[in-house]
Amino acid sequence: MQFVSRIRQSIRSLSRQPAFSLAIITITALGVGANAAVFSVVYQVLLRQLPFQHPEQLVIVTEAATFDTGLVSPTAFLEWRDRNPPFSKMGAFMWWEGTGPNPALTVTASKDYFDVLGVKPLLGRTFTDDEIRQGPYSARILSYEYWQKQFNGDPNVIGRAIVDPRTPGPPSPIVGIMPAGPINLQIGWADVWQPLRMKNELDRTLTTNGRYIRVLARLRDGIGTGQAQAAMKVIQRRLEIEQPEIFGGYQVRIASLRDTLTGEFRPALLIMTATVGCLLLLACASLANMLVARSAAHGRELAVRIALGASRSNLAGGLLLDNLILTTVGGGAGLLVGRLTTGALARFDPGIRSLGADITYAWPVVLVCAGLALVTAILVTVPVLLSISSAGLHDSLKEGGRSGAAGARHSRIRSLLVSTEVSLALSLLIVSGLLARSFTMLMNVDLGFNPNHVLLVETNLGDINQDTGSNKLATYRSLTQGIAQIPGVVAVGGLRYFPMHARLVTQIVSSADRSARQTVYYNRVTGDYFEAMGIPLVAGRLPTRQEMWENRGTAGRTLINATAAKLLFANGDAVGKLLKTDGQSLEVIGVVGDVRQAGLDRPPGPEFYMLEGQTVGVTTLAIRTRGNPGAALKEAIAAEIRKQNNSGIQPAVVSVDTYLGNTIAARRTAARLGAGFAVLSLILSALGIYGLLAYWVAQRTAEIGVRLALGASSESILRLVFGHGFKLAAPGLLAGMAISLALAKLISSFLYGVPPVDPITFLFAPLLLLAVALFAAWIPATRALRINPVDALRAE
Fold first, then answer.
1. Are 540 and 561 in contact (CB under 8 A)?
2. Rounded Cα gap, residues 617 and 460, in angstroms
3. Rounded distance, CA 715 to CA 728, Å?
4. What DSSP assignment string belongs to 547-576?
5. Contact 253, 64 (CB under 8 A)
6. How many CB atoms are closer than 10 A to CB 218?
7. Other beta carbons within 10 Å of 428
8. CA dist., res. 724 & res. 722, Å (int)
């Protein structure tokens, strides 16, 4: 009962200072809200238990040579499975993103894929051996989310043959519904699954050195990732001896399913976690500064209460209770702020969306918010208690409350808190500056092609129209010709894998000049692809229209990039020479410029291009326009595509700039959040400097009045105030530089084209913070100039 009475008393006391209480609640809400927003993403992505059986045993197995695309040869998958690997089960899968602005993510999966995950269908069954032999259009399994969205959870869909224009293929029966899971193509969890048929599995005499499937495996009980890696190394060495033309130069890599899910976002999320932690400490310093100032203003009141018999423990408990009430309300508001921030991130940032996590507030997030509110209350109370000493209270009684002075102890503590704010703000500013500079450098790298005025359309009309063979070729030829005739279109080309696409495929090739075999990227192109993309011709010639479109004119011809020419041919002289791959010889008719295939932050690798007349596999159209493409031109292109299919699907026409931005979503997300936190830290530190200087000027009103009465100039008064502001900021700037050096080394692996100790960032950030500090000191300084000496002395 007594505790409830004390709570009521605290609430009444705080309500008499609404502006002060609102300021405390607002700062707490911002600090806790930022932490809640980031932690909600961290929890969903890094900490939440995956909805699979013993997820810690699940791994992704890849082959890597010169570069690692995350892909495996079907031959390698079958050989591994047959040689008693350290895995209890293995499954393979491939994916297709679908077509349209809201595509249905589709995966073709082997029969054992769901057994590896340990997932049983919610309804129906998984694929049978017959369906695997018949291929991808023999059956479909739906995810829980897709089933709910498209069929309203109707259990009678089992056995029904459906066709969705956003997925490839003709109508096929639904045989199962899977439970809810994290939609993420990197691990094969999609909207729709279809059977994966591998010719090598049906006929083991067939082999291929092309890498284009992904492998999911479950570790045997008692075996860790390191042991599995060692065991697979032995198996791979034997295979390299037996089949060097397929396995030569390749190594096996094993990564946990969790690491594959998070990918490049893991370091970004860890950086953001540390950043919001610093932001919360900065908020605590700002709050403590305000509370110390409040205790200074009420110093005589506290002294009288102790003189009348109040114990220091009761006084400390009362202060903690006041702060706990304020931070609890602020923590609740922070929970709402964090929820809104998280929702905005998930809606507007493709980086967060691409993680496939359902970013919602689970109970651990609420517990973290409550814990942060409690920690904040304790942290901001400690400096206040330190500022209340016996000597300080005795001085307050002697001073009679004159000007509410709190003495040198209050000033020292508040100065220390402001310096702490400045140091943390500078650290956040430098880290965000490094991330922003890195992102800018990435966006300005030489791509190897001209992205200006280029549109991309992800499509698969041959599958949508249920075409096969030459009919697919005719479909795309008609489509490209139709789009090329639209006013404003300069060139149209088709390709299988757009640069920096997650489904990059590799092939092993060799040449007569050099017997050493090389792993290279390969792509399939058609139409005026090189003109549409602005990829320069280095040597030789580009293919003719006949070579691009007609099977009879393309046998044995290819183009390679400059890096492949240097690797495979003496002096890079490749034109007219033969390239050997997968049992066939191809004449090199031209050498084109290098394109960054694997990412903006990775150098170009060797690549060769299959002409579409040799094989059918276009999924993306690249369209170069005469100027900036407007909505009318995009709609005209979409209308032409709709004419070529009967599905009524609305194709998604996007610019290359938008696509490229999505490929570095993790870095962009880190740069955006870092910039937001840096701005917030600048505001908090500026408020701290302003508050302390305003208090300092108020305390020295009489002194400044005397100086003015004795003839002190305005410049000397400004120097006095600004000098004190600089003394407050200087220690924080020095400490912040030291902290920033340590943080820069920690995030160095996440930077591109920017050294950890970047001179521009380390020079500009302190200057910016110093400018903000001077601006914060300007108002108290001008207020000091307006002091009337007579009024100041009379008040004294």
1. no
2. 9
3. 20
4. HHH-GGGTTTEEEEEHHHHHHHSGGG--TT
5. yes
6. 23
7. 32
8. 5
DSSP run (H or E) holding 185: none
Strand-pair category, 518-527 with 607-611: parallel
Backbone angles phi, psi at 217, to 5 degrees: -140, 160
3-class DSSP string for 738-786: HHHHHHHHHCHHHCCCCCCCCHHHHHHHHHHHHHHHHHHHHHHHHHHHC
> What b/e string do you get for 298-326 counting C-beta neighbours within 10 Å, with b at 16 or more?
bbbebbebbeeeeeeeebeebbbbbbbbb
In tens, the pLDDT along 684-705 reads 777 777 776 777 777 777 777 7
Q: What is the pLDDT of residues 108-125, one digit of tens each?
A: 999 999 999 999 999 999
Please tell me whether residue 96 adopts helix, strand or coil conformation: strand
Inter-residue contact 119 to 179 (CB < 8 Å):
yes
Q: What pairs with residue 96 in β-bridges?
A: 106
User: Which range, of 9-13, 255-259, 383-387, 747-751, averages the lowest pLDDT?
Assistant: 383-387
pTM above threshold 0.85: no
Three-state secondary structure along 215-255? EEEEECCCCCHHHHHHHHHHHHHHHHHHCHHHHCCCEEEEE
Residue with tokens 């200057």: 767
Distances (CA, A) of 593 to 391, 535, 565: 78, 6, 10
What Cα–Cα distance (Å) separates residue 615 from each residue in 179, 510, 542, 644?
38, 20, 18, 20
Cβ contact 796:699 at 8 Å: no
